[in-house]
Amino acid sequence: MDKAGLTSVIEKLPNGLGTHVGREVYLDGTLFSGGEIQRLMLARALYKDGPILLLDEPTAALDPIAENDIYMKYSEMTKGRTSLFISHRLASTRFCDRIILIAGGRIREEGTHDDLLALGDEYANLYTVQSRYYQEGKEF
């Protein structure tokens, strides 16, 4: 729960870990926010402790602070296992050992963040587009 950032959420629940989540099955279920549900799914994947961790847009519903928290813990979460991280948020690629850009169902580029920026092709363009709004003094 700590690694997924759910400890404080669990502590506030009426029955702790025994609290029902959602109301599809249990009328007394607690409704989680999108970010809390995303963290719960991450906690379940980490609890499984399998050799491969597959995360598809794991931070899409998180605010920037919570997203950063996940990124800062990512190395610890994935230690000793293979991890596949699918994301359209290219800021998350900075901590990846290898990036594979897929477009039109085909691998278009492959390498590290620095390699792909130096290549100056699709990845570099996408990264530049996403990052330009965070750079001071840039004219758009």
From TrEMBL:
Database matches in Gene3D superfamilies: P-loop containing nucleotide triphosphate hydrolases
Superkingdom as given in the UniProt entry: Bacteria
Keyword ATP-binding: yes
Keyword vocabulary terms for this entry: ATP-binding, Nucleotide-binding
Location of the ABC transporter domain: 22-60
Lineage: Bacteria, Bacillati, Bacillota, Clostridia, Eubacteriales
Stated name of the protein: ATP-binding cassette domain-containing protein
InterPro entries the record matches: ABC_transporter-like_ATP-bd, P-loop_NTPase, Type_1_exporter
A family per Pfam: ABC_tran
SUPFAM superfamilies the record matches: P-loop containing nucleoside triphosphate hydrolases
